[in-house]
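Researcher: Sequence recovery benchmark, item below. Answer with residues only.
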């Protein structure tokens, strides 16, 4: 079902906005592309036969509570270019799993530059730069904006619409699977943070 809200239009009743699937889709994309980036960097360092002591010191930055905060700031930044590239050409893994498509108001795919602008705006206005308290505030205000107006501020300002696949049994199977992955990864990350303190 598509969302068609003009920038100055009042909120529309019965708009299918689905904030939680959108959140889970984003987290899956951030996890996937962050993991790929870390894997590529580790392989690159191995190929260079980099000083293992220096690599261990670098990886040590991501341990404990400070490492979790640093990871929350860096992971979404690393994910911005590949997410934008995939949005410009089709769908990301998270958006596919939850049946989400982002299109222009004319129904066309975004170009890479527009997709990059959207991702950078979401990093600042939606994820609050990954900073713990700022993130809580920006996510709460974005959730309220989406729930009340049927569209986020960044999609409204960029002239974009979010389309959701019908909530069929197959959609529910994918959504439950995707949601379970996100919850499990967050739980594992929390446990890892506290056990390393």
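Model:
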């Amino acid at each position: 079902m598509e969302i068609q809200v003009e920038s100055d239009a009042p909120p529309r009743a019965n708009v299918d906005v689905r904030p939680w699937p959108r959140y889970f889709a984003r987290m899956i994309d951030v996890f996937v592309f962050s993991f790929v980036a870390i894997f590529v960097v580790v392989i690159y360092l191995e190929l260079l036969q980099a000083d293992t002591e220096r690599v261990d010191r670098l990886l040590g930055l991501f341990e404990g509570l400070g490492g979790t905060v640093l990871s929350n700031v860096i992971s979404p930044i690393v994910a911005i270019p590949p997410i934008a590239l995939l949005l410009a050409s089709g769908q990301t893994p998270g958006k596919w799993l939850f049946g989400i498509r982002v299109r222009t108001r004319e129904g066309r795919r975004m170009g890479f530059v527009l997709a990059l602008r959207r991702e950078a705006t979401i990093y600042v206005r939606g994820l609050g730069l990954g900073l713990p308290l700022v993130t809580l505030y920006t996510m709460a205000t974005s959730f309220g904006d989406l729930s009340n107006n049927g569209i986020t501020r960044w999609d409204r300002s960029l002239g974009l619409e979010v389309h959701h696949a019908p909530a069929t049994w197959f959609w529910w199977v994918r959504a439950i699977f995707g949601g379970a992955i996100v919850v499990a990864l967050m739980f594992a990350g929390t446990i890892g943070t506290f056990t390393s303190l």
